[in-house]
Structure formats: structure tokens, C-alpha cells
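Form 7-S
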Amino acid sequence: MPKVYNWQLGREMDYRFEGGMQERQFAAVFNINRCIACQTCTMACKSTWTFSPGQELMWWNNVETKPYGGYPHHWDTKLLQMQDEADPGGQVWNAGASDAKRAPYGQFEGKTIFETADGIQQVATGYIPAEEEWKSPNIYEDTATRFPAGGVSLPEHSGWFFYLQRICNHCTYPACVAACPRNAAYKREEDGIVLIDQNRCRGYRKCVEACPYKKSMYRPSTRTSEKCIGCYPRVEGTDPLTNGLPMETRCMTACIGKIRLQGLVKVGDGGEWLEDRQNPLYYLVHVEKVALPLYPQFGTQPNVYYIPPRWVPRDYLHQMFGPGVDGAIERYSNPSRELLAVLQLFRATQEIVFTYKIEQGPKTGELNVGGQAREMFNDTVIGLDSAGREIVRVTVDEPLIERRDRFAMNTI
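Output:
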């Protein structure tokens, strides 16, 4: 296999193809701390893309309760076990070997799913879930590890669960693309969205087997595989609602908890993100480093990132998001002035925000965070489109609007 550089692992790794060369890369950040598991995103996707015969068990977007839930059932623990069996005791990180740009999380010293595979029968280590594993997508919803009688407090709860929001990660090195014997799965050059050519697909389910996140799914009525398409007509700007501007996906715009921010980032020849300081996704991932990839040790370099939950035991989060967890939670729990403003862009507009700027506002108060005095400011964050035109502005303090002229109070 060719060698490619995976900046999330901090090293080169084996992959079937040379490094990707996209003009831009579809990416997103999900803030787990805000999710209420209303499943509005799930139903928005379902009602748009997977409502037809043969798609009954397809949920391109799902929200599962960790640590026990999963769709398909136990998808992550099964693969983690397979990786550990293939490389006993070797799936570890060297967090000390960090580099701000080339290895921000340190270096992963274990083996990826591409490196534990035999390269003949399998390009990537994986498995095909049984039919019953695709049923009950909300299994173990709201099931906690325990229910302490004395209450809980931060930073870690003795009894805990959290909601994990999942779509296709549109990986830089997708396992589905590497595993497909007919090259039906591919990455688009213009935005890095991973699609499956339905005319080429013969339903071998190699993509289903290889995808570590199990986001490629088999449709028996057509005998082909299907997956999240990143709502590419909206990303292209062909939806009339935004007058030709690139638009966020259905699951993003339907989110009532304002946990999602989706966009397009600039990438280099090797798939690495190019410096773009005022892109909100670049800022969250590479500058503040509060958003982390899901299971980066699998080696696919996923492009959906998560702000980890503050109340969960750190060992569990380290396994799921890598060694950057402690710093990410610390920075999110006591956010900088700029981070506090950028967080207001989540679900503030349906148009994709390419860059932002901040207008500083007046001081509005003081508070104590972890024993440290903090000043609060009502700054305004302004989101700009690809042409640098303003499309949204949001203040840190939510405005209070009284509409007495429209809604008369009840009187006796």
C-alpha cells in the first residue's frame, strides 16, 4: 500500500490510494454538551433520504446513548476488540510526541484498521453486522452506568451517560473507498464528500465491512450499498432557499439544541487542513483544539469533530477521542473570549459560514470559574459567506425582546 500522512495520528500510515487532493473538505463540529437527544436531526434525515422500501433500517444520522447504546449494536466496542486482538497491548498513544501542526494529539503507536488487515482478503479490518444488529437504533437510550443516591458534581459523574450524534465522517482516508473492489465508492474533488456510484455498485458489502463507523449500509431492495451523501445539493448551493449560497445539511439545520456547525475547509495535497485562521471550524479544531475526532486511532482521519462531554470519566473519553480530551474540556469549561463568541455561530444560520469576525462589546459582568475570576463581554460574532458577505451576526448575550404590541396580556 502507498504511504500517506495522517495528522490526527501524527505519523504516516498505509492506505490503498495516494493522499487526497480536494479543493475543499466537508467538515463539521458537534458539541456533545448541548445535545438533548430529541432526534430531530435523525428524523430530518430520515424523512428526506431514507423513507423508501428497503431503507427501513437505514439511519444515516442517528443519536445513540453511550456507553451502552450503538447503531448497529456495539459497533465500536466490537472493532476496538478486533484491533486489540490484532495488536495486543500495542494500541497506545505517545502524547509527548506532539507537534502543533503535524501531530497535535501526539503520535499513535498502535496499528490502524488498514495496518491490521491482511491486505488480500481485507483492505481494512472490519465485519458485517448481523441483521438484528441494525434493529432497535435507540437501544439503551438514557441508560446510565449507575444511579447514585447522593447526587453528582463536575468534573466527573459517578453515574453517567451521554448522547453521541453520528453521521458519515466523510473521512480523508475512507475505508469504504479503499475496500470497494469496483471503485464504486469515491471522494468528490470539489468538497471531499464520500459517495457510492449506484451504477457501479454490485452490493458486495465490502464497504459495509470496512467502514469502522458502520455508516455504509446495504439496501436489499436494490442490492446496492448506500450512505450519507452530505446533502451535497445543499452544499453545492443548488437549494433555492439560500439563493445559490452553500447551505448546511438537513441534520445540521434541524438541530434545535444548536449543537452543530458544518462547513467547508481548505485542504492541501496530503489531505491536511490548510491554515485558515478565521474559518470557525479551523479555529475550533486547530487553534482552540476543543473539537476532537471520533476514534482517530482507526486511521481514516474523520472530518466530523466533537466537543467532549465534561461529566464523563476521562479514561472512557481518551479511548473515544484520543489524548486531546483533557485540554479540550479544560478550554471549553473556561472558554476564552473568542471561543465564547464563536460558539454562538452554531445553528445561527442555514448558510455555510466560511469566515468570521468579532466586534468587541461592553463588559457585562464578572464570575468565578474554577477559582478564577472571569470578565464577561457582550461581543458580536459575524459570519461571512464564501464571497466575504455578511450572512449572520449573533451576540454573546441573548437579547430579551418584549412584544407587548403583538401579544396582549390576559386581563380579568
